Amino acid sequence: MTNTTKINYIELPITDLAASKAFYSAAFGWTYIDYGPTYASFQGAGIDGGLDADSDRKPGKNGALVILHSDDLVAAQASVETAGGKITIAIFAFPGGHRFHFSDPSGNELAVWSTDE
Questions:
Q1: What pTM was estimated for this model as a whole?
Q2: Beta bridge partners of 67
Q3: Domains of the chain, with CATH numbers?
Q4: CA-based Rg of the chain, rounded to a whole angstrom?
């Protein structure tokens, strides 16, 4: 049996569309296609996704953890901080790499990792 079911799209519940778009643009260079006043799909993140300000789901850190990859973890952390993100777990080592966790302006927790060089 062939498995053709793959992760295709990720939606992040947010509280402020303009603030979230500004944050992810500044931190990671994401671009957007707007679909009304409460929804924008993001591009340039490695997977298709969207920011949803009209969701019944609430931002948080207790759901699935979206993990981004960076070739330069220190620069990625600085970019997150400069863009207004809050580091929730500083850079730490794990087998095969290093990562840090951060919260976005809505309170979603995400992480960024990098392989050991």
A1: 0.90
A2: 111
A3: 9-115 (3.10.180.10)
A4: 15
